[in-house]
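Section 5: illustrative case.
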């Protein structure tokens, strides 16, 4: 074979390999972009849920809410002052 033909075949193989590398890299880049978008959506959902849970926690910890639940569900009531006993540390 002619040396020129061998160089041409090697150059053609290098161009084809390079083109395949570009195609693969673009494909992986697009796949990574899609995955990133999905993960960002999931992150946004978690942030929204965290905000809802913080609001719910604040509402559940509110003294008036606790008192109303104690009255309604447990039948509790505020004791009269005559039955309150204050204990002091000696």
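Designed sequence:
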């Amino acid at each position: 074979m002619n040396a020129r033909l061998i160089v041409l075949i090697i150059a053609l193989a290098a161009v084809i390999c390079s083109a395949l590398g570009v195609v693969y890299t673009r494909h992986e880049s697009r796949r990574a972009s899609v995955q990133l978008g999905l993960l960002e959506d999931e992150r946004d959902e978690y942030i929204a849920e965290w905000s809802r849970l913080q609001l719910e926690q604040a509402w559940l910890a509110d003294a008036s809410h606790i008192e109303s639940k104690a009255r309604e569900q447990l039948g509790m009531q505020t004791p009269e002052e005559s039955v309150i006993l204050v204990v002091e540390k000696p």
